[in-house]
Structures are given as structure tokens and as C-alpha cells.
């Protein structure tokens, strides 16, 4: 391993190219740095898709960018793994009243497990992706840091990486702003330089939508809105599987005119528990201990940490405990199934680990 | 930009030497024969290309086209008037399936190429008739008994002469004897995979419609033929002029047809010289060498297969990874089927043969030709086992 910033001697690197500008520029930067670069695009989804990691046109963009860069490019079909580890759990989690994060599960199981294993078997030294995050080598190990462009930072969706994986991963664009990333693509004449970013869940097209997608694969059932304190039924939702804990929209207003907040989803009892905004606040978030991952040294019980509970959520100060986080300031309830990323309280850009929230 | 260029140059220079590279994907498209290229260029340089017109230049082009058509017909054992020139194999199959006007049903084998499968789906929907899929056995051989029970009178039946993935040769003559006379069926045969190795002239009397493609026989891509008796009423699928007796509109590719004629003549010569038999022998020697690797199974080794085809599986290994390592070693091969995105999908052919998904996901298709050199055969025997064993787990 080289100096901080993830700089290395020339290595043989497999770069995951989604067909977007970030991974296109990642490949270009690796070439500029003198590495031996091969591109790979994962074919993950055979169904309808707008854009993102899954569509044929994105595979085609990646292939053409690789040709423009003069590097080899391969396409791996991982649609079975995607179905098993991302799509099926996505549906099951919603059916169980939880709110999954499919991007994190794709990173966990596909990009940084199946693809990393393939890269190993194929003799590559490293796997690179176009995520906005940095790998910084310090204190004898690879650390995961937020990307330089705070508005585009994707360290949250990589927070489940482990030391053994970080050692084998390169994140070439983490040091750049999005504008600089586009400038790299422009300077190499890449066709993706001005390509719009993908935003939503890649396997759900806008014409079908989340409800349409889930309705094809699971039963969506109505649920009563039940006030947690009083037990009173105060309304109904058409599809309780589409409600997220913490949600305010569409749940009506209480006697004081305040938007109700979903605090728990109970698919078996066909109800959604709601509370007034003040009563809904929580100062503790429980997590599944089996889901804990660490990028390096684990947090110790009682240690302070900054926690982020959504892709671009505000970091909150908390104290780590064995099975829960104790928040210094109360927050809106956090949806079970979501990932909580731990950041270092002293170096707030450094990712420490992750866990999945449970009720 | 300059950095990019220098990096790209550096990357390319690390690829294996041209001399060490092996093209073992003839079934995707055989290398263009030098004689074909020469004939095509000569025809292209011969003058205005459109054979339709009221002047000497057009008549001259028409004469070249007539000559090419006659030579193609001779090689296929057909009459020149039966040869419909198309824009390639897929179009030939589409015309073969969509052209017949009143089939009582559309029947295809379970291992047809996607060009036939999709055309059959469209044909059945357009004519408002049933699409019937006819099974194959575990070796990928067409199940004649099952077909007898399933094919109704007056059906349009499409069965390939040989499968493009496994290379298995199908019993077209038997099928024809069993079905064609009594049941007044129309039989279309996709002979695209078979054409580089088998005699089409022997096949043609047994079928009503037959498709071939230029690039599979070392001829030009973008040129195909549908052979169909001139008396057979075919509805054109491309509207337009009355070229090809109204069966296929559009200006003919005179140079392409000339190139195809040359390619088919060379194929026939190879067969006569025993080079196809020699090819099959070399394939068998390689198959024997590869099958000694632990876990490797040669697909359909109990069936008659095309001389250049060697298809194998090694459960647990993924086709894509085998192809990456072979590509790195300068060997071009395939998994058998590719989708638009370039990622191998699990082969419908292998699944139709009853192969389990895990094994099917490991498929490797090596397809060679008469032009494959001794050094290339040696390199395949050396590198393929290495690659397979490095990925086996």
C-alpha cells in the first residue's frame, strides 16, 4: 500500500463501470495514474428500468466509454445474485413493514462480495468504483472517508465495507468535486461527461413506481392508523407496506392540527402506529447486532460517534452501546431496515462502521 | 488527452501478440475469406451498384447479380429463382416464418435461435394461430416422436439444421419424411449454423424454406438467403419495390451476393477435400484433452455435431470469468448466447435440454474452422484447461 490518499504503485485494477460519468471518470483517472485498467459492467436487472446500474443503454454507454479510453471491457451477468440479495429482500422487507436500502445491499452482496471475489479469481489486484468517497491509508490501515464533495458524498452506502475489503478497493474520484469529475470526462472526450445522474431505485422504473413494483410481487394491504398513546383508530392507509417509520405525509393531522408521524408498522395486525411529532421523537435507535460491520477498530460501548441514518441525512451525535445508539438530541423515529452509518466523533469525515436498524 | 492516449497505448501493448491470438468463435462469425473480400471489392469497383435501371450500367450490375445468384443456387442445390437475397440470417428467418400466409399453427423446436423464436412468436400472433414448442432430448436432439404427436396438419414448422450453441445436427430428413408429405406442413430450416460444415444441397430437397447467413461461412455480413420455391406464396415483410420477385423489397447488394457465392464455393471445396472431416477429428482430439480436466463435461457428446463445435460445461465456474481469462490470453470464445448488453444469459438451449442452471451458467463454446491453425489448436489445448482449473472451486 502506498501513501495516504490511496495512491499506489501501478496495479492491475478492475473498475466497475455503471455507464455513468462518475465511474467513467474513475476509469480515466486510473489510466492517468498509470494503472492497468479493465472495465466491467454488471448486468443486474432484466426488467424495465429508467437508468442507473441496470439498463441496456447504460451497459452500452460503459462499453463505449471503455472503447474511448482504449481499455478492455467485460459484462458480467449477476442478475440472479441481484434478485437473491437485493430485489427479493427488498420486497420481503417492505412486506414486513420495514424500509430497506437496496443500494447498500447491492454494494454489500454484489459489488463488494461477488464482484470482488470475481476480481480476485481473475487476478486483479484491486477493484475500483466511481463512488464519491475516499480510502485514506493511515495508521497502517485503509480508512474510509467521506468524499471531498460533501453534496455528493456516498460514504454512507459504503459504510458496510470491512478492512479486508477496503484493502482491495480503490475509489479514484473521492478526492474530486462533481464538477471536477465531469471535467475529467470532458478532457478525455467521454460520451458520459454530461450524463444526468441516476437517483431512484435502479430496478424500479418511473412508469411502474414503487407501489406498482411491490404490488406485482407481494400483497399490499390496507392498515388502520392507530394512535400509539390512546389506541384510537384515527384513519386508514391504502397500503401499509408503503408507509415508512418517520413518515408524516399522507397520515392526516391530529386534533392540534399537527401532522401525525408513523412510529411503527404492524403488517400482521394490519395497523400503523402514529404519534404527534413531539411524542414521536426518539433518543435511542436499536440495531441488529448481527449486522454490525466495522471499517477498522470497532467503537467501544460508551464511545461517542456521529451517526447518519439516511443517504444524505444530517449526522447526529450519539453514544454507542452494545445494541443501541443513544442520541444526544432526540430525532424523528428511524425506519427499521435502514442502515445507520457510524462516523468518528473527532474526525467527522471518517466512517467507522454500520448496522441495520431494528424496531 | 495526451495522457489518455499514452495510457491507452500502454494498455494495448500489454495484450498478447497477434501471433499468439486464437479466434475460437467462428460460430459468431467466421473470419472473412480473403477470396471473398477480393471478389467483393472487385464487384464494388465494377460500377454503379443498383441492378435495377434502364441503362447499360444497371444491366451490367444485374448481370453480375444474376451470376452470383446462380452460383449461390448451385451451391445450395436450388434453382436460381428460388433464391431470395436478404439483409442477413435474421431477416431470412423472419421472412421464412412471417412470409407464409395461412399456417394452421407455428411449430418450432425448443432450441431455435432467438431470430426464429421471436419471428415465430410474431407470426403466431399475427396469424392468430397457436405457437407450439417441440421438445428435444438431453443431448439436444429433436424429438421426432413428440413432434408427430404435436404438429397439426397445415402447420408451419421451423427446425434448425444444427444448433448454433451445441452444434448438434438435427434429423431434418427424418422429420421431413414423417411430417411433410402427410400433413401438408411447410418446413422452414434455419441452416445458418450448419452451412459452414454441412451440405445444404442435400438438405434443401427435404424442406420448403431454408435460411443461411453470409458471415457464418466466411462470407460478407449483412447478406443472407432465404431459399423458397418460386411457387410458394410469400408475403414480403419489407414493403417497397418488386425486387426479388416481390418477396424482398430494396436494392440488392450485388457485391455482397458475389462475396457469398465465393464463400459457399469455398465451403463446398473444403468438404470435398476432406477438410471438414479433418476439422472434426481435431475437434475430437481437443475435446478429449479438455474432458480430462476434473468436472468438465463435453455437451452432447453422444450426438452428431458440427465439425467445428466444441461445447463444454464445468459447474461452479461462471462463463463470463472463463471468457475474461481466455480473452486476456488472446483467445476469443463465447458462452454460446449473448444478449444485447453483451452479458451472457443462461442458455435457453441448455435449459431446454434439461441441464440445470448452475451447469448451464458455466457454458463455454469453442468454435473453430478450417482456417484454424495447428498452433491455434495447440494453444487451445494448453490454455483452456489452465483457465478452467484456475477458476474451478
Give an account of the 3D structure:
The complex is a heterodimer of chains A (359) and B (393). Chain A is built from 8 helices and 18 strands. With 359 residues, chain A is an alpha/beta fold. Chain A has 3 domains: 12-187, 3-Layer(aba) Sandwich (Rossmann fold), CATH 3.40.50.620; 220-280, no CATH class; 282-356, Translation factors (Elongation Factor Tu (Ef-tu), domain 3, Beta Barrel). In chain A, the strands form 3 sheets. In chain A, strands 5, 6, 12, 13, 14, 15, 16, 17 and 18 form a 9-stranded antiparallel β-sheet that branches. In chain A, strands 3-2-1-4-7 form a 5-stranded parallel β-sheet, with helices on both faces. In chain A, strand 10 (261-266) and strand 11 form a beta hairpin. The longest helix of chain A is centred in the first third of the chain and has 20 residues, at 102-121. Residues 1-6 of chain A have low confidence and may be disordered. Chain B is of the alpha/beta class and 393 residues long. Chain B folds into 2 domains: 11-26 and 274-391, Alpha-Beta Complex (Aspartate Aminotransferase, domain 1), CATH 3.90.1150.10; 34-270, Aspartate Aminotransferase, domain 2, CATH 3.40.640.10. Chain B has 14 helices and 12 strands. Chain B has helices at residues 2-13, 34-44, 56-76, 89-98, 114-127, 144-150, 172-183, 200-203, 254-272, 275-291, 319-328, 348-352, 357-360, 374-391, and strands at residues 22-23, 83-86, 105-109, 130-134, 156-158, 186-190, 209-213, 224-228, 297-298, 309-313, 331-332, 364-367. In chain B, the strands form 3 sheets. In chain B, strands 2-8-7-6-5-3-4 form a 7-stranded mixed β-sheet, with helices on both faces. A 3-stranded antiparallel β-sheet of chain B has the order 9-10-12. The longest helix of chain B has 21 residues, at 56-76. Chain B is globular and about 65 Å long. Chain B starts with a helix and ends with a helix. The A-B interface holds A 28, 31-32, 34, 36-37, 41, 43, 56, 59-60, 63, 69-72, 74-77, 80, 118, 121-123, 187-189 and B 1, 3-4, 7-12, 14, 318, 320-321, 323-325, 327-328, 339-345, 357, 390-391.
Amino acid at each position: 500500500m502506498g501513501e495516504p490518499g490511496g495512491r499506489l504503485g501501478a496495479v492491475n485494477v478492475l473498475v466497475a463501470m455503471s455507464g455513468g460519468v462518475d465511474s467513467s471518470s474513475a476509469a480515466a483517472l486510473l489510466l492517468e495514474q498509470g494503472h492497468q485498467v479493465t472495465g466491467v459492467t454488471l448486468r443486474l436487472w432484466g426488467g424495465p428500468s429508467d437508468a442507473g446500474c441496470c439498463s441496456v443503454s447504460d451497459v452500452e454507454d460503459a462499453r463505449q466509454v471503455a472503447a474511448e479510453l482504449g481499455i478492455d471491457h467485460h459484462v458480467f451477468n449477476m442478475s440472479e445474485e441481484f434478485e437473491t440479495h437485493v430485489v427479493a429482500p427488498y420486497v420481503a422487507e417492505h412486506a414486513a413493514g420495514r424500509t430497506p436500502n437496496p443500494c447498500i445491499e447491492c454494494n454489500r452482496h454484489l459489488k463488494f462480495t461477488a464482484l470482488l471475489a470475481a476480481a480476485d479469481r481473475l487476478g486483479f489486484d484491486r477493484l475500483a468504483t466511481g463512488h464519491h468517497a475516499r480510502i485514506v491509508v493511515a495508521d497502517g490501515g485503509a480508512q474510509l472517508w467521506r468524499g471531498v464533495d460533501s453534496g455528493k458524498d456516498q460514504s454512507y452506502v459504503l459504510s458496510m465495507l470491512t478492512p479486508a475489503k477496503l484493502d482491495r478497493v480503490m475509489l479514484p474520484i473521492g478526492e474530486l468535486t462533481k464538477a471536477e469529475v465531469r471535467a475529467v470526462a470532458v478532457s478525455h472526450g467521454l460520451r458520459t461527461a454530461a450524463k444526468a445522474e441516476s437517483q431512484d431505485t435502479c430496478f424500479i422504473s418511473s412508469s411502474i413506481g414503487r407501489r406498482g413494483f411491490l404490488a406485482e410481487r407481494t400483497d399490499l394491504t390496507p392498515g388502520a392508523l392507530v394512535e400509539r398513546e390512546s389506541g384510537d383508530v384515527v384513519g386508514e392507509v391504502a397500503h401499509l407496506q408503503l408507509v415508512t417509520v418517520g413518515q408524516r405525509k399522507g397520515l392526516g393531522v391530529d386534533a392540534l392540527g399537527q401532522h401525525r408521524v408513523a412510529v411503527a408498522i404492524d403488517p400482521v395486525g394490519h395497523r400503523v402506529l402514529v404519534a404527534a411529532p413531539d411524542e414521536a421523537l426518539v433518543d435511542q435507535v436499536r440495531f441488529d447486532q448481527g449486522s454490525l460491520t466495522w471499517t477498522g477498530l470497532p467503537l467501544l460501548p460508551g464511545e461517542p460517534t456521529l451517526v447518519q441514518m439516511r443517504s444524505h441525512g444530517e449526522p447526529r451525535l450519539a453514544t454507542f452501546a452494545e445494541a443501541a445508539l443513544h442520541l444526544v438530541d432526540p430525532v424523528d423515529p428511524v425506519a427499521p431496515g435502514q442502515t445507520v452509518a457510524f462516523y468518528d466523533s473527532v474526525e467527522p469525515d471518517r466512517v467507522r462502521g454500520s448496522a441495520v436498524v431494528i424496531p | 488527452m495526451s495522457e489518455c492516449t499514452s495510457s491507452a497505448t500502454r494498455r494495448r501493448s500489454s495484450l498478447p501478440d497477434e501471433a499468439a491470438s486464437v479466434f475460437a468463435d467462428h460460430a459468431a462469425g467466421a473470419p472473412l475469406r480473403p477470396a471473398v473480400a477480393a471478389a467483393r471489392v472487385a464487384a464494388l469497383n465494377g460500377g454503379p451498384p443498383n441492378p435495377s435501371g434502364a441503362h447499360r450500367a444497371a444491366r451490367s450490375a444485374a448481370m453480375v447479380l444474376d451470376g452470383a445468384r446462380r452460383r449461390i443456387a448451385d451451391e445450395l442445390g436450388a434453382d436460381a429463382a428460388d433464391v431470395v437475397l436478404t439483409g442477413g440470417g435474421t431477416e431470412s428467418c423472419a421472412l421464412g416464418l412471417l412470409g407464409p400466409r395461412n399456417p394452421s399453427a407455428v411449430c418450432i423446436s425448443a432450441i431455435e435461435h432467438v431470430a426464429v423464436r421471436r419471428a415465430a412468436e410474431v407470426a403466431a400472433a399475427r396469424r392468430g394461430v397457436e405457437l407450439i414448442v417441440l421438445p428435444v432430448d438431453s443431448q439436444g436432439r429433436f424429438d421426432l416422436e413428440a413432434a408427430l404427436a404435436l404438429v397439426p396438419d397445415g402447420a408451419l414448422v421451423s427446425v434448425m439444421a444444427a444448433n448454433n450453441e451445441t452444434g448438434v445436427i438435427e434429423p431434418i430428413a427424418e422429420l421431413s419424411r414423417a411430417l411433410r408429405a402427410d400433413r401438408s406442413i411447410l418446413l422452414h430450416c434455419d441452416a445458418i449454423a450448419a452451412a459452414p460444415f454441412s451440405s445444404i444441397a442435400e438438405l434443401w430437397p427435404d424442406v420448403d424454406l431454408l435460411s443461411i447467413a453470409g458471415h457464418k461461412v466466411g462470407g460478407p455480413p449483412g447478406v443472407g438467403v432465404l431459399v423458397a420455391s418460386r411457387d410458394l406464396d410469400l408475403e414480403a415483410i419489407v414493403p417497397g419495390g418488386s425486387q426479388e420477385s416481390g418477396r424482398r423489397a430494396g436494392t440488392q447488394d450485388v457485391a455482397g451476393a458475389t462475396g457469398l457465392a465465393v464463400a459457399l464455393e469455398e465451403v463446398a471445396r473444403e468438404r470435398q477435400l476432406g477438410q471438414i472431416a479433418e476439422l472434426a477429428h481435431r475437434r475430437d482430439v481437443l475435446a478429449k484433452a479438455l474432458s480430462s480436466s476434473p468436472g468438465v463435461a463435453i455437451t452432447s457428446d453422444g450426438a452428431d455435431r458440427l465439425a467445428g463445435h466444441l461445447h463444454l460445461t464445468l459447474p461452479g465456474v461462471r462463463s463470463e470469468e472463463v471468457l475474461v481469462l481466455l480473452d486476456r490470453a488472446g483467445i476469443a470464445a463465447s458462452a454460446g448466447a449473448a444478449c444485447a448488453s453483451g452479458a451472457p444469459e443462461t442458455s435457453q438451449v441448455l435449459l431446454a435440454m434439461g441441464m440445470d442452471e448452475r451447469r448451464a451458467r458455466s457454458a463455454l463454446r469453442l468454435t473453430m474452422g478450417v482456417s484454424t491453425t495447428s498452433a491455434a489448436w495447440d494453444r487451445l489445448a494448453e490454455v483452456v484447461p489452465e483457465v478452467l482449473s484456475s477458476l474451478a472451486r
